[in-house]
Amino acid sequence: MAPTPASVRPGSHLGDLLRRVAQQPQRDPVTGIRTGHEFDQWLAHIASTRGCVRPVRLTGHLHTVEKATGRLLESRHTASMPDGVLYVPCGDRRASVCPACAETYRADTFQLIKAGLVGGKGVPTTVTGHPAVFATTTAPSFGPVHTRRVHPTTGKVAPCRMRRTLTRCPHGKALHCTARHHADDPSLGRPICLDCYDHAGHVVWNGWAGELWRRTMIGLNRALKPWERTHGVRLRISYGKVAEYQRRGVVHFHALLRLDAVDPEQPDTVLPPPAAITAAELAELAAPVFAETAFHTPGYADTDHTWLVEWGRQLDIRPVAGMRGGQITSEAVAAYLAKYATKATETTGLPVTKRMNAETAAYYANTSSTHVGRLVAYAWHLGARPATWTDDERRQRWHETYGRLRRWTHMLGFGGHFSTKSRRYSTTHKQLRAARRTWQRRQVCQWRRDHGLDAHDDDTTLVVTDLVLAGIGWHTTADAQLATQAATRAREHRALAREERTTA
C-alpha cells in the first residue's frame, strides 16, 4: 500500500514530495486568498526558473498598466501565487554553481556568436561572406609544468617532459618527467618545481590580460590601414571571445575575429568588406600583431619593478568557413566558444565562488604546499595597499592597478568578463534575455486564456513591479527535485522537437 501524506513523517523528503503532488487549492479563512494550488499550476508557476538550483524568491505587488494611458488594469500580490512568492532564476553563469542557469547562458552565447557569423537577431545575413578567423591565444611560460601530449595521428600519449640531458634546477628538482599522464591526472598543470615557477608573474599576467587584449585589438585595427588605402574603404575588426582557465591556472582566450567595412556616416551599420580580402589573408595579418603586442605594467608600490605582459608562443589562428566545408565551420566555432563561457576556476582545483577575505585567503593559500595555494597567496599579497599610500588619489590609482589582484584573488587575479564582444559584432545577452522574458509572458497569457482567466495583451500593457527579496532557494529539497525534473523533461521535449524539424 502506497504511503499517504498524512502517514509520512513530517519534514521527510518523501513526505514533501507527496504533499506537493497532492496539493489542492484552499482559501485562507481570514483573507480569502487562495493559499494552496494544484500541482500543475505550481509547475506552470516555476517553469520560468528552468530548473535553477537556487532561485530568488520575491514577494510584493505586480501592477498591469496600459501603455497608452497609464491606466491601472490589474494589481496582483504574490500571496495569490503558488507558495506566495514569485520565483526568478539566479542567472549565474558558472556551471559549478547552477547548471541550469549556466546552460541558459551557454545557449545565449551560442546564439550570440552564431549571429555574428551567419546573421540574424539584428545582424544582416551578408556577414556570412565576411572574412573571419578563429584565434586561440595563450599566456607565456612562467615555468615548466606537467602536461599531457597526444599524437595527432596515432592517438598515443607521449611522455610528459623527455630530455636528452638530465638536468636539475637550482633547487635540486629534476627537470624531466617520463610519465604518460592520463586525462584526469591531478599533477597536470602543476609546476615541475614550485620554487622555480614565477607565481607573481602568473597572477600579474592574469590581472592585465584584458588590457593586453585591448591593445592587441587596437594594433590589429591599425594594421588594416594599408588595406584601407588600397581598397578605398574604411575597415574594422569585430570580435566575440571567451576566456578559459588552463590547468596551470592562467587564462587564455578563444576569439572569433570578423572583418567589416565601415560607413563613416552610419558607423553602426555592418557592411561587407572588399571581396578581394580573404580569411587566409586576415589570419596572416593578425599573427604578427599578436606576437608583437606587449607592454610593461606600472611600477609596483614605490618601486621601479614592473612585469612584461605579452602573449605566449602558442598562437593558433585559423580561417573560418561558412556553414559547410573549410577548416572550421561557423557552427563549430559558436559551439566551441559557448562551451567555455560557463567555466571558471574549476580546472585549477579552486572551486571558490565568492570573493575572498583574509581568513579564506589564508585557508586556500596554504603558503608552500600547492601550486594553487601559492597563486592565491601571491594575488592576495600583491594586491595589499601599501600603508604609506594615504591620499585618495593614490589609493584610487592602486585600486585600478595592483589592488585588483586582491579583489579578484578568488579568480587568481583575473577580473575580466568570461564572455565579451565588440560593440557591433552581434546582439547582446541583455537583448536575448528581454526576448526570452517577452516569450515567457506571452506563454503565461496564453495559459491564463486557456484556463478561462483574464489575460492582457503584451503589446499594449506593461507590468510594473514592487517586489522585495523573500529568500533564495527552494523551500524543500522535494521542490528542488520536482523543478529539476520538470526542466529536464522540457529540455528533452525541445531537443526532440528540434530534431524532428531538422529531419522533416
Give the structure's gist in a few sentences.
By secondary structure, the protein is of the alpha+beta class. Helix content is 35%, strand content 17%. It is globular, with a radius of gyration of 27 Å.
Describe this structure as you would to a colleague.
By secondary structure, the chain is of the alpha+beta class. Helix content is 35%, strand content 17%. The protein contains 13 helices and 14 strands. The strands form four sheets. Strands 4, 7, 8, 9, 12 and 13 form a six-stranded antiparallel beta sheet that branches. Strands 1, 2, 3 and 14 form a four-stranded antiparallel beta sheet that branches. Helix 1 packs across helix 13, helix 3 packs antiparallel against helix 7 and helix 8 packs antiparallel against helix 9. It is globular, with a radius of gyration of 27 Å. The N terminus is likely disordered.
Spell out the key features of this protein.
about 500 residues; alpha+beta; 6-stranded antiparallel β-sheet; 13 helices; disordered N terminus
Mean pLDDT, to the nearest integer, reads: 84
Secondary structure: helix percent: 25-40%
Number of strands: 14
Outline the low-pLDDT stretches: 1-8
If helices are DSSP runs of H or I spanning 4 or more residues, what is the number of helices? 13
**Mind summarizing the main beta sheet?**
6 strands, antiparallel
